[in-house]
Amino acid sequence: MHKLLTLTALTLTLCATAGATRYPLTLTDDLGRQVTLRAEPRRLVSMLPSNTETLCALGVCDRLVGVDNYSDFPQQVTRLPKLGGLYDPKVEAIVALKPDLVVVSKYGKLAESLTQAGLTVLAVNPETYDDVLSKTLTLGRVVNREAQAKALVLNMQRDIARVEILTRNAVRKPTTYLEIDPTPYSVGPNSFIGVLLTKAGARNIIPASMGDFPKVDPEFIVKANPQLMLGLDLKAARSRPGWQSIQAVKTGRVLEIPRELNTMLGRPGPRLPQALRGLAQLIHPELFR
Fold it and tell me: What domains can you pick out in the chain, each with its CATH number?
């Protein structure tokens, strides 16, 4: 409770002190480039779903004139022109929209192509839990919504703290394997999904030394013998060589992640608290009855 009261007080303080962004604004993007915005951007293109969601959460959804193929939340962005994906962007279509600013991923070569075409391009690529919060503040500054960004971040932190209060009291925290791809790929404890997994009251079997999103030797999973498996179904788990001996398989604690929750987990953006709550409900349904 004390933590929630502190966050609430901090929200009021920061919102009161946040002022208007001054332009021209120069900042370093996630490609290490110096990017200057001459004025407040009014026509935006977002080429990453997490950034699309963040911009809308900041109250500038009406400034978006186009998005990538995968941006589908909130509902109103589904009516915008679809401009391709990370490796198949529609460069000419983006240029034709005459945006003031294009927000892109640091991966692929879209930033280079659009910069050469004379557009202002900013690479914003949240990858860690802390990135989600810091990049929200960055985007708030970029679009002159700094107060809204600070309020959003602190509201996210408050909602996350509420879930943590519940999971902290869990009697058992199961050792857990979370699969993001049947190859299989999983999540390390320092990835944003890995951090959520821990906050949701699970013990990740993947060590930090394997990286944030490692491809995992199936034999490692067998030896780790997790008590809970997420992201695949029981039939699939039983069909894999040696996996019948895993505790989660034997007890039936192999759970698919619902589609909407899976989408939220894959997007490091403003719906992180909802993703955490959904994950915690899968791991500890007894805490939410």
Answer: 28-128 (3.40.50.1980), 172-288 (3.40.50.1980)
